Amino acid sequence: MTRAITAGLDGTEESLAALDWAAREAVRRGLPLRVLHAWHHAEKLAGADHDTQRGWAEEGVAQAVRQVAERHPKLTVSVEVVEEDAAPALGRAARDAEMLALGSRGHGPVVGFLLGSVGRQVIAEATRPVVLVRAGDRPALEAAGREVVVGQHGDAEDSAAALRFAFETAAARGATVRAVRAWTLPPVFAYSPGSLRLLDEAGGLEPYEKQALADALRPWRERFPGVPVAEQVEMGSAGQVLLSLVGRAQLMVVGRRARRTAVGARIGSVAHGVLHHADCPVAVVPHD
């Protein structure tokens, strides 16, 4: 089954930017585009009954889709306008999509389709990648030598999904992947005899981290031999290291492992920090 790239549209400038981003990505990957709009009947809107309000919603979506079709005449586009809450609509769309593109605003919580806990819930529970795009996203940056920057951590399996997404995206764009592994000094008491032996064999902490990154990248280098790769190992917190590279990124890719708490699903601190402060599009990729 061919999965579409889905864009959540709510009429805001941010969601229109996400729609444009999704259309360009669909063209590059040869995939169809699906546009989803969720709306609610406003009882207190004077002079506008249910059918009138639905007509406004459908016309607003149709206008945005017409503009996309004019820019990408060969792109296959489908539209779904649903009368329901945003969270279940987006959750269903994310399950069925190759990826879900949504608008985000400013250096703060994701808004537009995503409001507070709804946004965190969608990102934390999505089983497919979710890409957040800010208003003012410029297509020219995708062809200006900027890189697809991806965070790698743990062993090869821990970051496999994020690395796969980064390499697939870079291959479609003719871009370089910059794979980043951040590390910090662990407390001495955390060392086990086994870990000490591995570090000794690697020649120390930094060589060990470089080898771990190289090992994680090896299968993706082999699968995508035409994609240039830059490897970067840097001491520091993962979030800070990744954010220091935003100026050279056309897309930032971070993995996430959802964590359930008494107040609902939460994403990891690295994904949370990058989402709130990066001014380029950010792809949050769930672990396999």
Word description of this protein:
It is a single chain. This protein has 288 residues and is an alpha/beta fold. The chain is 41% helix and 23% strand. The protein contains 9 helices and 12 strands. The strands form 2 sheets. A 10-stranded mixed sheet has the order 3-2-1-4-5-12-9-6-7-8, sandwiched between helices. A two-stranded antiparallel ribbon has the order 10-11. Strand 6 (147-151), helix 5 (160-173) and strand 7 (177-183) form a beta-alpha-beta unit. The longest helix has 22 residues, at 50-71. The protein is elongated. The model is unreliable at 107-116 (pLDDT under 50).
Concise overview:
With 288 residues, the protein is an alpha/beta fold.
List the keywords.
288 residues; 12 strands; Rossmann fold; two-stranded antiparallel ribbon; alpha/beta; Universal_stress_UspA; 2 domains; single chain; Rossmann-like_a/b/a_fold; Nucleotide-binding universal stress UspA family protein
Based on DSSP secondary structure assignment, what is the total number of beta strands? Answer: 12
Q: What is the percent of helical residues?
A: 40-55%
Can you give the mean pLDDT? 84
SSE string, helices as H and strands as E: EHEHEHEHEEHEHHEHEEEHE
Looking at the structure, the CATH topology of the largest domain is: Rossmann fold
The CATH class of the largest domain turns out to be: Alpha Beta
Approximate strand percentage? 15-25%
Radius of gyration: 20 Å
Domain UspA: 1-134, 155-286
InterPro entries: Rossmann-like_a/b/a_fold (IPR014729), Universal_stress_UspA (IPR006015), UspA (IPR006016)
Protein name: Nucleotide-binding universal stress UspA family protein
Organism: Streptomyces murinus
